[in-house]
Design goal:
118 residues; alpha+beta
């Protein structure tokens, strides 16, 4: 059972912001913005590569509700999912980073030169 499944099952504590029958959102323990939440499906899905369109439809509504609840829907926010090792996915359970609360920059891309990856 993965870390996020244990959070869903309440085996590990998390600072939960929003929850419904199918999805859960909680505060990231290592925030990269004033508001940094993780939104996950309660069912285990390894990554975006395996998610069904039906689950994504529900996730879209859930994230839209979440950003309204935390007050970043009008000022703007970023939604990111990492896929696989090269994409930076650390927990193999589909999750979306929802970041906001400040003017966001690209940070880790600011000094990257695409030619270095060719």
């Amino acid at each position: 059972m993965c870390l996020f499944c244990k959070i869903v099952n309440k085996e590990i504590n998390a600072n939960i912001e929003l929850e419904n029958e199918n999805f859960l959102a909680f505060h990231d323990i290592n925030p990269k913005a004033p508001t940094h939440l993780l939104a996950i499906p309660k069912i285990h899905v390894d990554s975006f590569n395996e998610v069904s369109p039906e689950t994504m439809a529900g996730m879209t509504e859930f994230i839209q509700e979440l950003v309204k609840q935390v007050g970043i829907d009008k000022s703007g926010y970023r939604v990111i999912t990492n896929v696989g090792d090269n994409g930076g996915q650390e927990v193999k359970h589909l999750h979306f980073h929802v970041l906001g609360g400040a003017k966001l920059t690209w940070g880790h891309f600011s000094d990257a030169d695409p030619k270095d990856f060719l």
